[in-house]
């Protein structure tokens, strides 16, 4: 399992891309997607919602369980991935590409985001 080097990661298994004009893309890691099993439903934050770092902002339901989705940063949601809402299996098949979840205009970023190497160590992969 590889964790792209250019991303940063939360301890709750979300990834965060570098910002473009202050907007970052957020998704869950391959480790989290595999642990969830087949994702069958995604409830994502809506455009215009304010999300807070470390707090729940949605949920992913799989054939195994329902898991809360946490935001790794604080800011305003600028886009939710409708493709994932329509086809939640994208979270499993392409967690770092087409399976991204939402985009946020960041207003605050916590100090505890992890590098790919730190996340790999945390996840034990």
Strand proportion, as a percent range, falls in: 35-45%
Low-confidence stretches: none
Helix content: 10-25%
Principal-axes shape call: globular
The beta-strand count equals: 9
The secondary-structure class comes to alpha+beta
In this structure, how is the largest beta sheet organized? 6 strands, antiparallel
Describe the structure.
- The chain is an alpha+beta fold and 125 residues long.
- It is built from four helices and nine strands, in the order βββαβββββααβα.
- The strands form two sheets. It has a six-stranded antiparallel sheet. It has a three-stranded antiparallel sheet with strand order 4-6-7.
- A hairpin with a 4-residue loop joins strand 1 (8-9) and strand 2 (14-16).
- The radius of gyration is 13 Å and the shape is globular.
- The N and C termini lie close together (7 Å).
- The model has no long low-confidence stretch (mean pLDDT 94).
In short:
By secondary structure, this protein is an alpha+beta fold.
For this entry, give a set of tags.
125 residues; three-stranded antiparallel β-sheet; 4 helices; six-stranded antiparallel β-sheet; alpha+beta
Write the layout of secondary structure elements.
Blueprint lengths: L7 E2 L4 E3 L6 E6 L1 H7 L2 E5 L6 E2 L4 E7 L3 E5 L3 E7 L1 H5 L3 H4 L8 E7 L7 H8 L2
Antiparallel strand pairs: 1-2, 2-3, 3-9, 4-6, 5-8, 6-7, 8-9
């Amino acid at each position: 399992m590889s964790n792209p080097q250019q991303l940063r990661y939360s301890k709750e298994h979300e990834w965060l891309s570098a910002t473009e004009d202050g907007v970052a893309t957020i998704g869950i890691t391959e480790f989290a997607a595999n642990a969830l099993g087949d994702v069958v439903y995604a409830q994502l934050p809506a455009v215009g919602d304010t999300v807070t770092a470390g707090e729940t902002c949605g949920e992913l339901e799989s054939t195994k369980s329902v898991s809360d989705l946490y935001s790794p940063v604080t800011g305003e949601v600028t886009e939710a991935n409708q493709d994932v809402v329509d086809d939640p299996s994208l979270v499993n098949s392409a967690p770092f590409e087409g399976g991204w979840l939402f985009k946020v205009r960041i207003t605050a970023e916590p100090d505890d985001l992890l590098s790919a190497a730190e996340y790999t160590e945390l996840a034990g992969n």
